[in-house]
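Pilot study result, target chain (289 residues):
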Amino acid sequence: MFTGSYRGFDVTLESPGIGIITFNQPERLNGLTHHTKRDLVEVLTQAQMRDEVRVIVFTGSGRAFSAGDDITGRPQPGGENTVMPGIPRGHDTGIGTYEGLRVNSQPVNQAIRKLDKLTIAAINGFAIQTGMSLALSCDFRIASTEARIGSGTLRFGLLPDEGGHFLLVQLLGVAKAMDFMMRNRIVGGEEAQELGLVHETVQPGELMPRTMELAQELANGPQVAMRLLKSTIYNAAEVTFAQSLDDIAGKTAISDHHPDAREGVAAFRDKRKPRFNAWLEEKEPSEPR
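Predicted structure:
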């Protein structure tokens, strides 16, 4: 199963292939547990391998997108589709913390970035620490005017150990990232847009309609070319110009020979809107292997 209720979130699928992941623990401000993170990684793996999924949207219920890790110690409610068995948290020793971060916490944001299908964070409220880094891992971010975005780790003398520092440096540059994190700043949606942390800011009632409008646009675009371009853009931020040229040449060897490219050229010649993704629409829903 792909859709359903998991530990800490629900998954729905809307046409044409928009998967919506909604954090469903509003009484905990959608704090994430290690159970939630393991289920998230598996669901994202499922999304990657299922042709019927084209775009993933993340959002939260209640007053928060996700206010960070759930440190209350309360039991995590199970979902009907709980997919990963429990493991010890592993933070009782130094090496346990190191391993826990590498194999349990950090893979969530890595999975979002490695997913070649486009992702959108619809930030409805608090996006703090883990919630912030998860939102920043997405390809697009739309914030409500009620959103509050920040790291907040220094309030507890802790570090942004799930990659928030790297993502902030990518988006803000070193100087602004230093100011943002060292001064423990938490900003609203409009200021986040001014800084470059989010693409758009809308009124609360407009958040999901605008997010779904964007998701529809992305889902109807040429999926193969868009997925190849996504990874190429992120690679370009971290490699040399020569490496970036080689990277996009290899991917162009795929996209140039895809049916979507032929359709795009034909539509241009016929002066009509292209009808991409016929190869997807003709396929049956993916079956587990």
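One observation from the pilot: The first helix runs from residue 34 to 49. A full batch analysis is planned for the follow-on phase.
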